[in-house]
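quick one, 194 residues, struct below
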Amino acid sequence: MFYKPDEKKKYLKDNLSSKRYQHSLNVAVECRKLAEKYGEDPEKAYFAGLLHDVCKELAPEEQYRLIEESGFAICREERETRSLWHAVAGAYFIKSVWGIEDIDIINSIRFHTVGRAGMSRLEEIVYLGDLVSADRSYKDVDKMRKLVYTDLDAAMLEGFVFSIKSVVKKGGVVPPCTVEGYNFYTRLIKSDKK
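---
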């Protein structure tokens, strides 16, 4: 597939706040670097990272309409958590509106907020690229930035721990796929140590 990020940048610039647009550019750059480090297609990773928040600032009703139309499996916890809708909506949007059929790109956008067990390398890259992009400033972000370039599996596990703690602290519900992702990477790391 030939990726045309410049065509999509105009749409993003016109439909996202300047802060969200800059975040999308930062995530794209981070995804490219991670792809180079971990042997993935850098341009595909840049493209997926660029598009990860394509529907982030759509009206909630529009996001919900897209997730309902998508036909994607969506758990109750995702339906109940408005901040997660944009990922499902974005995955469906790039497929239905822009005709992007690459399942790896679709899934990398679909799961960039909740994660899941058995993520592809591109999905991991977009998940982590979003977590450590240049505009992120949460506590221990520098530690996380080092980890993503030294041990991808450990970084994924740390990402799940961070995500689950954040949701629990806010009194939210944790999607089963997030718990399954946490369990997957916990077991993976334990089996590597045997």
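The chain has one domain: 5-192.
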